[in-house]
Amino acid sequence: MLINDDSAIIRAEGLTRVYSMGATEVTGIRDVSLRIGRGEFVVLKGNSGSGKSTLLALLAGLDQPTRGRLVVAQHDLQDASQAELVRYRREIVGIIFQSFNLLPTLTVLENVCLPALLAGDPLVQVKPRARQLIDWLNLKSRDNHRPAQLSGGEMQRTAIARSLINDPEIILADEPTGNLDSLNGQTVIELLSELNRNSRRTVIVATHSSLADPYATSHICLKDGLITESLCEV
Ligand SMILES: Nc1ncnc2c1ncn2[C@@H]1O[C@H](COP(=O)(O)OP(=O)(O)OP(=O)(O)O)[C@@H](O)[C@H]1O
Ligand SMILES: [Mg+2]
């Protein structure tokens, strides 16, 4: 599944995802071709239903295309086996969702440690890394709390720490500020920008909000599953 071309960290050609719903078909994205360079901060825009989450799910290896080609960090995703996709999701991408997706029975520290433990790293190595991230995200006094005992901003910062524990090259965020007030939303976007600038991680954020616009190195606009060249009015 390794492709030897390092010119762009993400390359899609004719990427299409069609959902079959009984006899009818719904287009998620259609014929999307794009190249994203390493270290970019891409803001993905488009109306509700335009295909943003569909594209992010493909980039995240959570879903596979109906047609087309997708190569991310030299991993050819359209032909990947389920085992390869599991490894890819654990090691190459960090994924952040609007609804945080924390495990409710685990503490902040345990949620952050989990992806590294699942990847086989020993707890003695994982814990100090998790504590560093928790400190950086200003969650030190919350490390023993469970998600239900946190504010929305604290839950999203925990999710960011969790997404970083395996040191991914790419961070994918689907509406990361959608459940936050504007102050916490701004903090989350600034953290993503810091990760982009300081460690040259590639960041792709799908959002309806304009909070990320000042940090973007490029915008991608989707309309009815297609990339449009015109400016997004959302
Ligand atoms: N699992 C699915 N099964 C069937 N159709 C789906 C599925 N997921 C998405 N779709 C459809 O694909 C299209 C794109 O949806 P998607 O969730 O990617 O849009 P979006 O741009 O993320 O929207 P929003 O801004 O509301 O999050 C929509 O028409 C949607 O109804
Ligand atoms: Mg969406």
Q: Give the termini distance in whole angstroms.
A: 37 Å
Major beta sheet, specifics? Answer: 6 strands, mixed
In what order do the strands lie side by side in the largest sheet?
A: 6-7-8-3-9-10
**Multimer state:** single chain
**CATH structural architecture:** 3-Layer(aba) Sandwich
Query: pLDDT below 50 for ≥5 consecutive residues: which ranges?
Result: 1-5
Structural Rg? 17 Å
Strand proportion, as a percent range, falls in 25-35%
**Count of DSSP H/I helices:** 6
Return the CATH class: Alpha Beta
Shape: globular
Bound chemical compounds: adenosine-5'-triphosphate, magnesium ion
SS-based structural class? Answer: alpha/beta
CATH topology: Rossmann fold
* Total beta strands: 10
Average the pLDDT over all residues and give the rounded result: 94
| Strand/helix succession | EEEHEEHEHHHEHEEE
Task: Describe how the helices and strands are arranged.
Layout: E1 10-21, E2 24-36, E3 41-45, H1 52-59, E4 67-72, E5 75-76, H2 82-91, E6 93-97, H3 108-118, H4 123-136, H5 152-164, E7 170-174, H6 182-199, E8 202-206, E9 218-223, E10 226-228
Parallel strand pairs: 3-8, 3-9, 6-7, 7-8
Antiparallel strand pairs: 1-2, 1-4, 4-5, 9-10
Helix pairs in contact: 3-4, 3-5, 5-6
Bound molecules: adenosine-5'-triphosphate and magnesium ion.
Adenosine-5'-triphosphate binds next to strand 1, strand 2 and helix 1.
Key terms for this structure?
Rossmann fold, single chain, 6 helices, four-stranded antiparallel β-sheet, alpha/beta, 32% helix, six-stranded mixed β-sheet, 10 strands, binds adenosine-5'-triphosphate, binds magnesium ion, 234 residues, disordered N terminus
